Amino acid sequence: MRTYLDFEKSIAEIEAKIEELQALAESSDALEMGVELSRLKTKSERMLQDIYAKLDPWQKTAVARHPERPRFRDFVASLVTDFVELSGDRTYGEDPAVLGGLGKFLGRPSVLLGHEKGRTTAERLKHNFGMARPEGYRKAVRLMDMADTFQLPVISFVDTAGAYPGIGAEERGQAEAIARSTERCLTLGVPMVSVITGEGGSGGALAIAAANAVMMLEHAVYSVISPEAGASILFKDSGRAKDMAHAMKITAQDLIGLKVIDSIIKEPLGGAHRAPERAISTVGAAVAQALDGLKDLSPDALRAQRRERFYAIGRLENDAA
Is there a single domain that holds both residue 176 and residue 198? Predict the structure, then answer.
């Protein structure tokens, strides 16, 4: 059963009618029902186009958090063959919030990394809702070291509200682990491409997204802090999260202008959650194209390109000097 967001109530009503008519068509005049079904489907698509063309940042945040959006395991299942998952940081333990391993991405041997939120309640608890602890980022560093050793490109899929802020994580060096992971991204001598697929929250996202090419799905969000947490700090009221979302410039459309990201990957009509396989295929094509553009660069050139793209973030044209 599809999950509808608050601003999709009108669409939910029409699609409920469509389902009713489809059921009736099996026992009634199929021709007459077919005409009405076609009319309702056309109306539904038009409403989706209108609504999704005008989403505000808070609505985009809701879409980015939709439980049916593609997850890391979905991308791996569709785009990667011969995947071998690698676990543990060789220091403390395994963190299921960040997954990774080796595989052939559309036939190209690669190292894959990504946050995994899970879908069912049990999976979400197992993966800690995609909020990684220090061992998750130390595992990411271990896998990036392997990528450098064997000259394999790194592809990361980012979808997290942020790194886990619990006491145990802080005691084990959360800030240091995030810093080391970010540093390792920046010092890689192989191509790295990152895709913000849902939420890109704070350092927990940046730790595996300091890449040569950073892309966002059309309705994803990427921010220094979640709107709720930002509102709690600045306004002492998490209920003002909507105001915070508008103020922070967290959408792909805002961030490409600030040079935080390099490109926007278009989603199917109504969001990636409505046609996940099509969205995954589009992401795969975009990542492959980005890797093709980086494959002939030397290790030094890759590091220099990565450095310059981050120096350029937020810079105005007359600041270049």
Answer: yes
Range of the domain at 315: 61-319
The answer on pLDDT for 279 being more than 90 is yes
The SS3 call for residue 214 is: strand
Q: Do both 165 and 253 map to the same domain?
A: yes
Looking at the 3D structure of the chain, how many domains does it have? 2
Domain of 125: which CATH number? 3.90.226.10
Longest dimension (CA), the chain: 73
Kindly report the number of other CB atoms within 10 A of residue 17's CB atom: 15
Residue 288 vs residue 12, higher pLDDT = 288
Render pLDDT for 126-162 as a digit per residue (tens, 0 to 9).
999 999 999 999 999 999 999 999 999 999 999 999 9
Q: Reply yes or no on whether the pLDDT at 319 is more than 60.
A: no
Question: Hey, is 233 helix, strand or coil?
Answer: helix
d(CA 80, CA 102): 9
| pLDDT computed for residue 312 by the predictor | 86
Amino acid of residue 266: K
The amino acid present at 288, given as its one-letter code, is A
- Assess whether 289 and 306 both reside in one domain: yes
- Cα–Cα distance between 281 and 277 in angstroms, integer? 6
Please tell me the distance from the alpha carbon of residue 51 to that of residue 36, in angstroms, as a whole number.
Answer: 22
Hey, how many other C-beta atoms are within 10 angstroms of the C-beta on 186? 15
Taking each helix axis from N to C end, the angle separating 72-79 and 276-294, rounded to the nearest 10 degrees, works out to 70
Q: 234 with 108, same domain?
A: yes
pTM reported for the whole predicted model? 0.89
- Residue bearing the bigger pLDDT, 194 or 3: 194
Whether the CB-CB separation of 202 and 223 falls below 8 Å is answered with yes
Q: pLDDT above 70 covers what percent of the chain?
A: 93
Q: How far is CA 67 from the centre of its chain?
A: 13
Indicate whether 33 and 163 sit together in one domain.
Answer: no
